[in-house]
Amino acid sequence: MVRIYFKDKNIRNKFFKDLIRYSNLKTWKELRNKFDIPRTNLENYRNGKLTIPKNVYDNFNLFLPKKLIEHYSLKINSKEDRWGMIKGGKHNYIKNKHLYDLGRKKAWKVTRKKFGIEKIDVNAPINSEFCEVLGAFIGDGSLNIYRKNKYFVQFSGDSRYDLSYYKSRIIPLVKSLINRNPYIRIKKNSMWVTFYSKYLLKILTDRFSMPKGKKVYTVKIPDEILKDKTKLIFTLRGIFDTDGCVFFDKRNIYKKPYIRIALQLANKDLIEQVSDRLTFLKIPHTRYDRINVGSFGAYTIQINGIDNVKKYCETIGFYNQRHLKKLNFNFQKV
Questions:
Q1: What is the mean pLDDT of the segment spanning 27-31?
Q2: How far apart are CA 77 and CA 96, in angstroms?
């Protein structure tokens, strides 16, 4: 096993301080518990008496910004653990390969169970409610792979309005599939909810064809969803919960505030899909193509008036309290 050590004690001290800061933990005890590290080991990693196993160091890096990871990568050295046993170990492995492979298979099974590591089957059945996660990803998500083996799926939003929605809805739905807690980062009013999961990423990319990196102009509702009415409804709910808005038009031409639901996107193909499916669900709406919003153009769907808004709420509904609080009438959730 490769082990990591810092070239300078001051750099090492700063690394662990940054780790506490960016992992949103307050004490060393919380850090030990999060990474399942014995107290003595963590103390020795911090004071340099022990080198750090590379897999532990890599787990630490999951919580650091990319710039810091690159910074510290220039401040460390590595070496093989148990120098004197490596050559003999290789000889033994060649001689007893079948026994080693059997042992590794058993150990991997135990590790999966202990840490909730997922066995990847992208075609495994998913419940319809999980499609809200897909809709939220279409609205606010991104995903990518760093350094060939760091898989992340991230949702972003406004912490003032969306944090409670993610905590009460999206995070539990994701955990029902992968049983893994996210890393939540908040900076001022911005919020990022990140899941480090190969399985979740593969579900989104291999099964639902979600693009890696920037997706604002390329993401679409997958065919599997378009063909299933129940999955479609939950997916649309996720899209409107994240990218939609509820507002009241208070211009003088109306005797009283006129309620509207709006969805505004830069992706014309996606807007056309949503419009087509709203028509399929018999939800009256209006589509506006290419209106200027700030420095970019956008396409808009509006559901206008209390009767049409009620129809939307009865058919699709909202879960995000940001929208529900603006609705001044009762409606039945799906």
A1: 86
A2: 32
